[in-house]
Amino acid sequence: MSQNTVTRAFHAMAKPSGPDCNLNCAYCFYLEKHALYESSTQPRMSEAILERYVRDYIASVEPESEVAFTWQGGEPTLLGLNFYRHAVALQAKYGAGRKITNSFQTNGILLDDEWCAFFVRHHFLIGLSLDGPEEIHNEYRLTKKGRPTHKLVMRALARLQRHGVQYNVLACVNRRSAQSPEKVYDFLVASGVQFIQFLPVVERCHTSNTVTDWSVPPKDYGAFLCKIFDRWIARDVGRVFVMNIEWAFANFVGAPGAVCHHQPTCGRSVIVEHNGDVYACDHYVYPQYHLGNICDHTFAAMLDSHQQVTFGEEKLTTLPEQCQKCPVLRACWGGCPKHRFALTKEGKPGVNYLCEGFRLYFQHLPPYLKAMADLIAIGRPASDIMQAHLHHTKTRM
Q1: Which residues are catalytic?
Q2: Is the pTM of this model over 0.90?
Q3: How many CB atoms lie within 10 A of CB 99?
Q4: Strand 67-71 to 241-242 pairing
Q5: Residues 6 or more apart from 173 whose CB is under 8 A from it?
Q6: pLDDT exceeds 50 at position 1
């Protein structure tokens, strides 16, 4: 493998507490990763690994590019605030004036005023996990003792807002919540949330080729996103930002910014575990996708290895003919390879489990996306589409 230090654009997501978490969410796909490190009863990133990670990550990113640190888990707050104070100090030490950002995904349970003050001081962007109103959120997001967490997360949300922390909400769409798109969306917006991402819950059973009871049915996910879009286009353009819509618009106008699973290829977003191990992707933390360790290899060597390049290219090269001929290919690009376990019409493997939902959603959007693109092209805000949409709705009544 190459021993070059700098490589083209990539992103590393660190899991300094590994899969450790203070919750026991039914649909969490990462809790099983404890099996990778059975000898480590409490996985924690050491100071030595942290320094190596910060130093080498900064050195690996092209000099003119932003260095984006992302901290996730498990639950990253389990390491305590001093760990991140040290991380920021190391970023200053090795950054040499570089633009460095930090984002942080959390369930919010441990956030207090001190955490929030730190986030504001160092401009952290916080992703808060919140699935919607109480009865929906508490269906699957419970403590290890089986207790509900909604009130605790709402307390964290209020604290983030009170301190002026930059934040967004990650809402998982499961079998239950998919039945109530307007209820979920309206609750989040009424709670003051402006930036939202809707993530589908898709988990396969270990004992069969079926999905878990809480996985979202494909058509339900597509219908959910369509209803969210209709709510948004009617009243919230320019005021609320739904990442699923932002990604679709980026692909529609040929601009950068689409999420990895809706791009032709992948392989440029890797995971750094608490001990420095690097894996191909957040959804592929398995032994066969282990790229090496930051103590032994540079990021460039691992990202540019034949193994990882092939992994990224196969997202496109393994697309079934059915997908290649699909009218929404350039919006969908087959989705995440982890979810490509459905069969084609001819019974061949490689179709995304969510295919039916993606088709429904991406066929619903183009007229509206074109209208917004046309507005922007003539110097008008995309939000003007709400007036046209209202007029169109009234004329149909």
Answers
A1: 282
A2: yes
A3: 11
A4: unpaired
A5: 198, 199, 200, 201, 216, 221, 224
A6: no
